[in-house]
Structure formats: structure tokens, C-alpha cells
């Protein structure tokens, strides 16, 4: 997993589509557990690197699961019988119809319903880097240890703290966009998982949304690193900071100072690498500046 990023300017399409599905009510009197599952897909068309939003109304349900093949998306109980689900779409996900199976477990048994959204194709740029001196550092055991540490912080499961869209955390120029295919020293090294935002050293870096500081440590490759657990499966990553203005465990609100732009870690110039992850999948932060109403 690589933790470097970019952004694309495709607006998030928010359309409500409600599907009510009745499943085997039987002959006994109607009860809450016999009510239909109502699925509301709030993003019917999602570009590669985007985020899909789903509401499930499941009266009487003790537990909800949402799956696409082998992938499972943890729902969060919002209010009453309504559950919410956010789903990150990888930059290289195949374009086309994305089927979802929703199961609701009740005291009476399991009900299920199906829905779908469409993944739309995007064109991503290619970037060629020539940095022979960095190869050994990327291959070192310390690099793998950093990756595991960051991945653990990005994959915490906690209640959602963010509300509304995610602001841009620094006033800077976009130098590498999300999804950019990178070739380093002639070898493909994956897609850029976030945005590189160039700014003068010492430029303030702010929290894009509310959350908890899950990680705030100096690392060799990634430099001074902050991970914000925004809850609900969403986490933010901030790399190459000059310093820390927060510590692990701190609660932050949108606009809280996290630190300043720097050159820590492997970076040729001052910039912030900023990325958002949804249940561990890197998504385009530019597409989460706006979210459906109620989120």
C-alpha cells in the first residue's frame, strides 16, 4: 500500500433512488420484523475514486451487512431503524454496474434485498520520477513497518464524527493529483492515493473535518505523519509535516491546526500529502468536498 496522493475535479452526483423490497411476509400478523427493507442509494453514479452513500431502513434489525462479492462494508446505526453506509471506490475499479447485497438480521431470521450503483470511468495522468537513490529506502524493512503502522491507524472502526464535506487542509498548489499512475525509475509503483499540495515551508495545515488523532509520529519515509480518524470508516492522512500541533488521542474539529507544511521524510520540496480513506480504500478527496444532505 502506498500513501501518496492527488485530486480530480469531477462533481459528486447526488440523486435519491428509493427501492422498497418485500421479502416473504408469511401468514402471521404484520410486525416490525416483517417490514420491508428500504434502500436509498444517494449516489447512483460514482466515478472511479469516488465514494458511494447508502441508507438502509430496516425495522426490527439487530444487525445489517452490506456486501459486494467478498467485500463487506460496515454500516452504522443512524437513528431508529435507519443505518448508513459509506463505500470507497478504488481508482482502478472496473467501470459498470456495482451490485450490493443487503442482509438484515432480526429475532425472526434474516431478510435480504439487492440494489446497485454505477461506477463511471475516469482518465488518470501518468507521472515519471527519477530517484535512484530512494530505491533502497523504499525496500527497507523500516518502510514496511511504517506502512503497517499507518494502515492500522487508517482502519479503525469508530462512530462517525464528521458532518458535511471535507475542506481542503492547506492553501497550496496541486502538484500531483489523485489516481496518477506513478513510474519510479522506470517501474510502476502504483497510483497516487491522495493529493500533493505544494506550499511554502511553515504554511499552516488544518483538519479537513472533525475526528480523533489516531497517529502523530515522526517516520523515516513519510516524515511527520498525522492520521485523523473521522469515524464511520473515514480517515485522513497528512504527511511530511514540519511539526506537530496535536498529539495522539486529541479531538479535533474542522479547522484545528495540525502542524505546518515541511520537508520531513522522502520529499524533494515542501508540500503536504493529503489523502482520505474509506474503510481502507483511498478515495479522491476532491470528490468529498460535498456530500449528500444529512451526512
How would you explain this protein's 3D organization?
This protein is mainly β and 295 residues long. The protein folds into 2 domains: 17-120, Sandwich (Immunoglobulin-like), CATH 2.60.40; 126-288, Glucose Permease (Domain IIA). The protein contains 2 helices and 23 strands. It has helices at residues 135-139, 141-154; strands spanning 17-21, 37-41, 45-47, 51-57, 63-68, 71-73, 76-79, 82-88, 96-106, 109-120, 126-129, 173-176, 181-184, 187-191, 195-198, 204-206, 211-219, 223-231, 234-244, 251-252, 257-261, 271-278, 281-283. Strands 12, 15, 16, 17, 18, 19, 20, 21, 22 and 23 form a 10-stranded antiparallel sheet that branches. It has a 5-stranded antiparallel sheet with strand order 1-2-4-8-7, with no helix packed on it. A hairpin with a 3-residue loop joins strand 17 and strand 18. The longest helix has 14 residues, at 141-154. The two termini are 28 Å apart. Residues 1-30 have low confidence and may be disordered.
Question: What key phrases describe this protein's structure?
Answer:
five-stranded antiparallel beta sheet, 295 residues, ten-stranded antiparallel beta sheet, mainly beta, Immunoglobulin-like
Query: Can you say what the CATH homologous superfamily of the largest domain is?
Result: Glucose Permease (Domain IIA)
Number of strands: 23
The low-confidence parts are 1-30
Strand content: over 45%
Give the second-level CATH assignment, the architecture of the largest domain: Distorted Sandwich
| Number of helices, counting only DSSP H or I runs of 4 residues or more | 2
What Rg, in angstroms, do the CA atoms define? 20 Å
